[in-house]
What we know:
Elements: E1 3-7, E2 10-13, E3 18-25, E4 33-39, E5 46-51, E6 58-60, E7 68-73, E8 78-83, E9 92-99, E10 110-111, E11 115-120
Amino acid sequence: QVQLVESGGGLVQAGGSLRLSCAGSGRPLMNYAMGWFRQAPGKEREFVAATTWSAGNTYYADSVKGRFTVSRDNAKNSVYLQMNSLKSEDTAVYYCAANRGAAVSASYDYWGRGTQVTVSS
């Protein structure tokens, strides 16, 4: 199995940037599609970004396209989400997830605890 721990969340002003980190253990993350999801108060969990293990393709929700970037660092067995030009609408708990299946999927196999991102106006 895979264990995931997110970090890097915090409070930031609108227009600012944050870099979320996801540290993996148990299995090399390169064998999994990796995704980022978020859940705001009173809302359903939503897809944010993902990357495949096979072709290195990336996918982004329309709401973050052009602002967020997902990347990998194999030396640290980690996945990152660089978030730029943050908006108040980005406020949510962000979750790192790993999937043995497709990067674009209705569900993922493994989840981290989440890290809070709060964007103030």
